[in-house]
Specification:
Blueprint: H1 2-17, H2 24-35, H3 47-60, H4 65-77, H5 81-94, H6 96-111, H7 114-125
């Protein structure tokens, strides 16, 4: 029983280490421009400041998919799906594995664009 418990604990420990980002440069940009800048602004009331912080990060490196997703998120919450989707498309362009399923979900649940959602979600399965 003790060996089983240790084995399960070891397995979940390995899974948790699998979540670590491999791109330290992107992590530093996210830290600087999202955590230390944009997160200090409430995007509901300070959308311009939120977007400006993310734009600064994207000027430094436009391939940071997470910043593109974070640019899209407030627009989806404001029901401006077309605006948000253009930013989410950029996130998928730079990190398809991470954001394609999310885009499919957003197309299905929020945009009600079911055909495109199915295409995205089927591509995730492949």
């Amino acid at each position: 029983m003790k060996n089983i418990t240790l084995g399960i604990t070891f397995f979940f420990t390995l899974l948790s280490f699998g979540q670590v980002s491999t791109n330290k440069a992107h992590d530093a940009i996210v830290e600087e421009f999202l955590t230390n800048c944009a997160a200090k602004h409430n995007y509901v009331f300070e959308m311009t400041e939120w977007q400006n912080c993310l734009d600064q990060g994207l000027k430094k490196d436009s391939t940071v998919a997470y910043l593109w997703q974070q640019k899209a998120m407030p627009y989806f919450k404001c029901k401006k799906y077309e605006v948000g989707m253009s930013f989410l498309d950029k996130a998928v362009l730079y990190n398809k594995q991470e954001w394609l399923s999310y885009r499919g979900f957003m197309k299905c649940i929020f945009s009600k664009n079911y055909k495109d959602a199915i295409i995205d979600l089927e591509e995730c399965i492949r």
